[in-house]
């Protein structure tokens, strides 16, 4: 198996606060890894470093053969747009756009023309159980519907890696499971690697394995090679 | 404990042969742990001895598999009672976890490592149950969920124990 995304001995501070203190994590192609750990332990910071949103103070971040930590902002931003997908806790849809336009956004930003982009986007709605809601704006969707739209937006461009930070955090158990079923099914089908931050064990149980972040470091579970 | 009452409950739907009871038990309740025929028939004969079922329609010279069992009033009363009685809340596993953590701390052994190992074991089981859910029908989903919620409760306790280990160490060491 080839390693898709990897952090080696990464440190990162917000001013005085040391959020990461030598965090290492290697995720293989097609793997779904849950990142668990207490609040404030550095999970989101690690995800942002892996995704090239934050640049570590020291250590390395690799995406395949590419060193993300030494790339400039423009190159990282292009990489995020072309290779990565994102889903966050509160969907973060663009309120001015319709649900279908929100899903199409990564394609539009990637240079796909409006017609084909919207056609690809609309194809997601039936499968998400959201048929008929294509023209709603995000304010007119329930939390669970908005989160499914956000998931479709994260996956529509067939990213190599999906970064998900508490994607079910704002949902009830049943809706959360629907979102996770969809996430796992689609990731498997597309061969997408997933880094899934969650503090919920039932969500982590959808992953192939889990790691625990504590005090800015990553612990692989005992008895399992990391 | 629950096998006799579950078989009685199944008999309350309609009089049945032993093999029908076994099939339904395995489908709904056995889940990976089928009931041996021997246990089905020994349970039924004990229920008959205690007057909770009676045998009807014995075909001449027939073996145990040709008997049809019918629930009695006494059996039905017992089922009704059992179904309305709450189960004694018994968090066994938690007690074992608790004993291990406290003893490890008393003996100066690495309780953190034990908790990490236990968390990994729990999550492994939760992954298996999640697979069962994703592959199965609604009955599997509900059964697996019961296990998942219990394991999750243990995990929450494991996180709390991990966060309070230093304080607990002080509290239990002489
Ligand atoms: N923008 C920021 N400015 C200053 N400090 C920050 C910022 N973001 C995070 N931190 C600090 O960095 C540490 C790690 O935060 P991080 O968000 O990575 O934790 P987390 O594990 O994702 O927690 P949670 O489960 O609560 O989301 C914390 O101490 C947090 O207070
Ligand atoms: Mg976070």
TrEMBL record, chain A:
<dbReference type="GO" id="GO:0005524">
    <property type="term" value="F:ATP binding"/>
</dbReference>
<feature type="domain" description="ABC transporter">
    <location>
        <begin position="5"/>
        <end position="226"/>
    </location>
</feature>
<dbReference type="InterPro" id="IPR003439">
    <property type="entry name" value="ABC_transporter-like_ATP-bd"/>
</dbReference>
<dbReference type="Pfam" id="PF00005">
    <property type="entry name" value="ABC_tran"/>
</dbReference>
<protein>
    <submittedName>
        <fullName>Putative ABC transport system ATP-binding protein</fullName>
    </submittedName>
</protein>
<dbReference type="GO" id="GO:0016887">
    <property type="term" value="F:ATP hydrolysis activity"/>
</dbReference>
<keyword id="KW-0067">ATP-binding</keyword>
<keyword id="KW-0547">Nucleotide-binding</keyword>
<dbReference type="GO" id="GO:0005886">
    <property type="term" value="C:plasma membrane"/>
</dbReference>
<dbReference type="GO" id="GO:0022857">
    <property type="term" value="F:transmembrane transporter activity"/>
</dbReference>
<dbReference type="InterPro" id="IPR015854">
    <property type="entry name" value="ABC_transpr_LolD-like"/>
</dbReference>
<dbReference type="InterPro" id="IPR017871">
    <property type="entry name" value="ABC_transporter-like_CS"/>
</dbReference>
<dbReference type="InterPro" id="IPR027417">
    <property type="entry name" value="P-loop_NTPase"/>
</dbReference>
<keyword id="KW-0813">Transport</keyword>
<dbReference type="InterPro" id="IPR017911">
    <property type="entry name" value="MacB-like_ATP-bd"/>
</dbReference>
<dbReference type="InterPro" id="IPR003593">
    <property type="entry name" value="AAA+_ATPase"/>
</dbReference>
Automatic annotation (TrEMBL), chain B:
<dbReference type="Pfam" id="PF03551">
    <property type="entry name" value="PadR"/>
</dbReference>
<dbReference type="InterPro" id="IPR036388">
    <property type="entry name" value="WH-like_DNA-bd_sf"/>
</dbReference>
<dbReference type="InterPro" id="IPR036390">
    <property type="entry name" value="WH_DNA-bd_sf"/>
</dbReference>
<protein>
    <submittedName>
        <fullName>Transcriptional regulator, PadR family</fullName>
    </submittedName>
</protein>
<feature type="domain" description="Transcription regulator PadR N-terminal">
    <location>
        <begin position="7"/>
        <end position="80"/>
    </location>
</feature>
<dbReference type="InterPro" id="IPR005149">
    <property type="entry name" value="Tscrpt_reg_PadR_N"/>
</dbReference>
